[in-house]
Each structure stands twice: as C-alpha cells, then as structure tokens.
Amino acid sequence: MLDLSGKVAVVTGAGSGIGRGISLALAAAGARIFASDLLLERAEETARLVREAGGEGIPQQIDVTDPDAVQGMAEAASHEFGRLDICVANAGLFRNSSILSMPLEDWNQLMAVNVTGVFLTVQACAREMIRHGNGGRVITLSSVAGERANRGGFAYSGSKAAVRMMTRCWAQDLAAFDITVNSIAPGLIDTPMGDYIWGHVKPETAAAVPANRLGIPEDIGKLACWLASDEADYITGTYNVMDGGYLDRPFDRSGLDAERALNTGLSGDELLAALDGAGQDGFSAGVTRRAELELG
Question: Is 202 in contact with 7 (CB distance < 8 Å)?
Fold first, then answer.
C-alpha cells in the first residue's frame, strides 16, 4: 500500500468521475484532500466521501479559467494544511464538432478550461510547492485523444495534445525544485462525461476496448497515487496511457463509409446546409454514429 500520509493534495474537477476517483484514492493512501470543482455541491460530496472513509477533505468552488480564483485555491490549500505536495490538474470539458461548424464560443470555452485552466492550476500550485521547499508532484490529465486523431475531435484532441506537451516542458522547468510533472492519458472511462458522449451505446463501446471493459475512475486513481508517491521520484515528463489497449485497436471505417454514402449526389450548397442543420455537432448521421462509438 502506497503511503501518502501527511501529504496535501489539490484536485481540480474533483466533484465527479476521474477527479473524484483520484481524490478518494489519494485520501485512502493518507493524503489530505482539497477538493475543487466548478459546482460547490459536487466538491462537497467528494469531501464528504473522503471524510466518511476516514480521511481529511475540504471542498472549494473554483473556476479554473479565473486566474485570481486559481491562485486563491492554491494559497487556501497551503494555508489550511501548512503545505502543498500534490497537484492534480484534472478539470476539463468535452466538445465534439466538425471543423465546418464549431462555434468560436465553444472553441474558446474548451481551450480556456482544458489548456489555460491546466496552466493556471499548475503554475499556482508549483509556486506554493516552491514556497514551502518540500518538492512536489504535479499530475495532469491528458487523454488518448491527444494522440489518436478522430473525426470531429479536433478541439478536444488538440487541447489534450497541448496538455501532453506542456507537461513535458514543465517537467524541465520544475526539476530543479524537486517537483515532478507527469501526465495520465485515460481511454474510455465509465464516468458522467462518458455517459453523456456514448452512454446509450455503452455495451458496444466497451466491446471496442481490447480489455473488454470500460475503465473506471478507480483505475486512474491507482496510477495517480503511484505518480504522487516516493516510488515515482525518478519519473518526470512522462505520458502514461491507461486505456485497456484502446489506443492500439484497428481503425473502424464504418462511420466514414456511412458518411460518404449519405453525401453522395449532394451539391456543395446542399452539404453545407445539411451540416448547418445538424445542430451543434455539425455531423450527418454517419459521423454522429462514429462519435457515439469513440471518445478517444
């Protein structure tokens, strides 16, 4: 059993899914948890679960796109517990849309949370770690989407690829302060976000994973605990895929073939009208089916 006794961890997006799973796993290993989420009631629920399991958990409402709020979060955790050892930059959101139809507002929001929010969180927490002089562990959440291209996934995949490379650079920046920086890249994980994307085709989605099941937040929590522990003190700048083999599965072209069949015989104006009429995703039926089967 990994021992994180006495360590203090800030986890963003801690109110559900992977963030809650990581929070509970770190707490089970002895870490004190500062659970942050955009929705206070969800942060409070995670903190309550931590306390019920015998740990220490404090909730905080936080918008990771607000620089002052993020700085306040890191300072509050440091002040409350007298130190800050572990930063888990997990908060994120998902948008799936064609390049032909994604609204600029959606693009800006996704990048603000998934890229800028991670940057602000890591910067604020790293500065507090340096202030206390105990080194630290930074863990970012990327995704297999940051490595595998998917139709309609350009914004989400681009944001997660950015996290992957920022993590590698930050490992260089912070090495002199005994702070390690590593990224976890989940595959298909059974979370509320996953339910939103492909919950209505969950059996088919699980069957696409070589391990023959969806991942669960506890899986990611185990890896986060190890990366946060003294056992991983020589590990930094790494990208750790946890996906049950999903990343290396063969390409399924059924959605692409369906899309081509639907588009056959339509003029350019008719194609654009169909895209504009398909709603936020901007997909015809073939691409929508593809999105249902793939989060990656």
Answer: no
